Amino acid sequence: MPMTRKQEQKAPKRKEDYPEIMTVTQVAEYFQISEMTTYKLVQEGTIPAFKIGRHWRVKRDDLDLFIDKLKKGERI
After folding, report:
1. Residue 31 belongs to domain with CATH number
2. pTM here?
């Protein structure tokens, strides 16, 4: 039986479904954390990010490196 639209929205995305340059909202969804927590981590430099005008952006490759560091037990 095919998924309903609501089920599709709740289904976890694959890494490849996310764009190369992500917004804070997309990063929060990717990490399954709140947007507020994501903004905090970006603003304090814990998550590598850059600003375009007033908007934060994060490279997906940088997130993968960040995850690898966390998995190795590195202090961020």
Report:
1. 1.10.10
2. 0.79
